[in-house]
Amino acid sequence: MTRLVIQKNLALNTKLRQLSFILIGLSTASLVAAAPADKKLSYDSPACQISNAWCVGNVPDTSREYRQNELLLLYDTAQSARFAEDILQRYRLTQKRTDELFAIRTKMLTVATNGQDPKSLVDTINKKEDKVEANLSRLFFTAALSSANSSTPVGYPLDLTGIAQAHQFTKGAGVKIGMIDTPIDILHRSLDNSRVRRVELIPAGDRNNQKHGTAIAGVLIGQNPRIGIAPEAALYAVSAFSADPQNPNDRSSTAGLVAKALDLCIQEKVDVLNLSFAGKSDPLVNKMIQKAVDNNIIVVASAGNGGPKAEPAYPAAFANVLAVTAVDEQESLFGRANRGSYIDVAAPGVNIFTTSPAGTFDLATGTSVATAHVSGLIALLLSVNRRGVTPSLLEQTAIDLGLQGRDNDYGYGLVNVDRALTALRTVR
Both 105 and 162 in a single domain? Predict the structure, then answer.
């Protein structure tokens, strides 16, 4: 009996070793491609022991499109307080928060549905009421970041798009960048807090809560010469995203908070708006983004990290937004990036050296950091000539990648500041 047990154990161990060799022998690219789009991948996953390329950050649960016991009520600011009270009573709702969206002269109430289905309520209210509009409290997620050990040169992003050379002429002085993200570590030594104004719609929270926003802020205006794209630009940082205590790598916000953050950026008159997050299309958020565009704000957003088969990510897929995908130092597409006809341009977004909370530094991967690269590049251009800087300028001067001409992977290609500056010299 003892000999039989030993033989079975030996056979099992042999099979496990064979399986291990098979896994290690597979190409990393095929492993990543095989990962289902709706599965969460975390950069502290055991899969990182196989290859750093597995460490591509968590993918949000796309089945959660909106908060289940919450919705938004929108109505003209001229309406009385009694008007809102009547609506709340009529539909058995409880007020949670009141905001005003000055750009569209709208009061916004965030309300609890008290167990009622929010989707049915939205349909009912919008059919029966002509002076109030109901909106789902849709969820948006930061385009996930990851950390990984890598031999990639930390300075490659600046060289890949010509930023290092452009810094001889401009570093973004006189331009204001708006950023809607998680809170940031305002005390980080590489973030010149004299250039940063922070507005918190949600509490700053702990180090984990500040991770995404701090990384994005570093790419935008970091003072470290290997990190910041527009180190002399001003940053208006609005905190609207926070980490989920149950899943610390999942950072989300709602349509109401995003709309309020957009309104603040419009009132602040930012020049370029960085939106390193993604979600479903939302009528309120789309309306606020259009208002930003109408106010001559260039809006830049993450294409998303859902993978090749993911649905279009918003706000990037909105018509007037510059949608950014990510490439690595070899100009190869980031494997987890969304694809689609809405993709406009590509930028460095794999193993990007950037700032991290508590005065530290880290490597980050995702369309989030690629988006920040493009927003910073636009700030450089605006500081030279405000008249000719448009999303189409970046598209027309991009370096074509992938299939000839515009394609669904790289859009128009890799942004290039030198070509854009050359084109700007002809604009008067």
Answer: no
Per-residue tokens: 100 = 């005003």
Question: Nearest CA to 180 among 127, 236, 139, 138?
Answer: 236
Whole-number Å distance between alpha carbons of 335 and 323? 17
The pLDDT tens digits of the residues spanning 181-207 come to 999 999 999 998 889 999 999 999 999
Buried b (16+ CB within 10 A) or exposed e, 379-394: bbbbbbbeebbebebb
Token pair, residue 340, equals: 């689609």
Phi, psi of 208 (to 5 degrees): -65, -35
Separation CA 204–CA 218 (nearest Å): 17
Domain boundary among 137, 168, 187: 137
Asked whether the CA dihedral 257, 263, 268, 270 is positive or negative, the reply is positive
- Collect all residues with Cβ–Cβ distance below 8 Å to 118 and sequence separation of at least 6: 66, 67, 68, 69, 70, 71, 136, 137
299 forms beta bridges with 273
Residue 101 and residue 262: Cα distance in Å, rounded? Answer: 9
Return the residue matching tokens 């018509």. Answer: 319
Write down which residue in 105, 137, 169 finishes a domain.
Answer: 137
Which candidate, 370, 365, 378, 363, places its Cα nearest to that of 343?
370
Q: Is 426 exposed, middle or buried (0-12, 13-18, 19+ CB in 10 A)?
A: exposed
| pLDDT tens for each residue of 364-419 | 999 999 999 999 999 999 999 999 999 999 999 999 999 999 999 999 999 999 99
